């Protein structure tokens, strides 16, 4: 937490809950918000370089009202961070959280250029986030970290303008070191992963519309403090106009595991590079596959059921490049790509599909 305090953040710390309504209209109002159960963030402008941080929330409802905006500064961190237990975060009709990410976008994302903040770090237990409308995040939108029993639903993450204004690494959802997380019925228009699971256990992602990004990804897994993904289900999702469809990517020379992951009833449309891809040679430094897979993060219990759709003719339907894989079951129909890649590492007894 020191990194937040070092930013001279006006943070909400734990305290006695008074139980009445409280409205945040300026950043100076934030310091007293922890004492209330019903907190309204009303047409708030967050000054440049000062994240909106609500910590120690207990049994609270936080509602965004009107338009929330953020000042511009080149820095790394998050524009917002909420931490607490039994919290509901929602938005009133007509609200908008406008991050103004186009001021940072330069086509490079986190790989260089301007220093860009991420949008929203979530550290919530026994909580829910419902119905937020989010526009133009500088980089990653929702980072779920150290959360347990969290449900996220009906979010609209709109980074569509990044397609022509230089958006990059505008991930919709990233999940780290969390358990019992459900994300459902969200719309993501962006220029990176719609959903990316770095680590977590007992995760459900369903009923999503993903457009323009890099598809839905388990990974990259490896090279972090927690390198386990276990019991993750992705189902009833539509992925269109994206670089990738569904993929699992594990880090070369890392240690960890990916176990019991299911992609079910996923439809792909106009995927430009890889429809289905499983790789074990992801390189964190390069940000792409590099070298041979080392097998330190084995993929086991991987189920693809009714994964169907189309790949651009210049793309590849399926690419597998792993080692130490076991117990896969695939039922897929992905067609249209004419570019072939050599596949290696299908589990023993499974007929290679590429």
Automatic annotation (TrEMBL):
GO terms for biological process: cell wall organization; pectin catabolic process. GO terms for molecular function: polygalacturonase activity. The keyword Cell wall biogenesis/degradation applies. Keywords: Cell wall biogenesis/degradation, Disulfide bond, Glycosidase, Hydrolase, Repeat, Signal. Its EC number is 3.2.1.15. One of its GO terms (cellular component) is extracellular region. SMART domains: PbH1 (SM00710). It catalyses: (1,4-alpha-D-galacturonosyl)n+m + H2O = (1,4-alpha-D-galacturonosyl)n + (1,4-alpha-D-galacturonosyl)m. Belongs to the glycosyl hydrolase 28 family. This is endo-polygalacturonase.
């Amino acid at each position: 937490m020191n990194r937040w305090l070092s930013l001279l953040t006006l943070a909400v710390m734990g305290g006695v809950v008074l139980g009445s309504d409280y409205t945040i209209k300026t950043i100076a109002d934030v310091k007293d918000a922890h004492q209330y159960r019903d907190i309204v963030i009303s047409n708030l402008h967050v000054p440049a370089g000062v994240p909106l941080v609500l910590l120690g929330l207990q049994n609270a409802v936080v509602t965004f009202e009107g338009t929330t905006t953020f000042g511009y500064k080149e820095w790394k961190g998050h524009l917002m961070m909420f931490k607490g237990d039994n919290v509901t975060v929602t938005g009133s009709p007509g609200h908008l959280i406008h991050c103004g990410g186009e001021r940072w976008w330069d086509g490079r994302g986190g790989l260089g250029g301007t220093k860009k903040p991420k949008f929203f770090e979530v550290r919530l237990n026994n909580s829910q986030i419902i119905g937020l409308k989010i526009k133009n995040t500088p980089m990653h939108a929702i980072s779920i970290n150290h959360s347990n029993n969290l449900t996220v639903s009906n979010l609209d993450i709109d980074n569509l303008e990044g397609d022509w204004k230089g958006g990059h690494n505008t991930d919709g959802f990233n999940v780290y070191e969390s358990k019992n997380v459900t994300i459902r019925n969200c719309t993501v228009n962006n220029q990176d992963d719609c959903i990316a699971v770095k680590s977590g256990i007992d995760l459900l992602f369903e009923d999503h519309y993903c457009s323009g990004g890099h598809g839905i990804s388990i990974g990259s897994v490896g090279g972090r403090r927690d390198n386990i993904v276990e019991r993750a289900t992705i189902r009833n999702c539509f992925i269109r106009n994206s670089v990738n469809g569904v993929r699992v990517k594990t880090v070369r020379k890392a240690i960890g595991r990916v176990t019991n992951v299911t992609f079910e009833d996923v439809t792909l449309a106009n995927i430009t590079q890889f429809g289905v891809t499983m790789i074990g040679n992801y390189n964190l430094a390069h940000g792409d596959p590099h070298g041979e897979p080392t097998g330190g993060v084995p993929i086991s219990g991987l189920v693809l059921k009714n994964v169907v759709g189309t790949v651009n003719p210049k793309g590849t339907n399926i690419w597998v490049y792993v080692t130490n894989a076991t117990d896969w079951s695939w039922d897929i129909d992905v067609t249209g790509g004419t570019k072939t890649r050599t596949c290696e590492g299908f589990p023993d007894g499974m007929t290679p599909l590429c």
